[in-house]
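Repro:
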Amino acid sequence: MACHSSTVQIKKVRLAYFKGFWNILDIVVIVIAFCCVVFSIYRTSEVNNKLEELLANPDVFPDFSSLAYWQVTYNSALAILVFICWVKVCVDTLLDGRMLRFILLFYAIFNLYFSDLISIL
């Protein structure tokens, strides 16, 4: 959805689209999300290959260190993506005037479940 919307706006206003901070942030979100999808596919195939090697040679220690490095990189990219999206949601709702209601609702739900959790312990 965001990709299509950004593409339509870029076609409409050309390079002027890249003058806005939030527009650049939209492009960054799309690029990071695309990289995460590509890496997820790569990781799945690489783990399958490593497991096939492990099953073929059970006496050999498989080296998962490169996969661990890329998994940490993937987790960091995903964390940045979630943070940016959360900021955009907060800014969009703040501009609509709904943020206060959202915060109050979140606080009420958190307070309700937190008190239930404390009573269980």
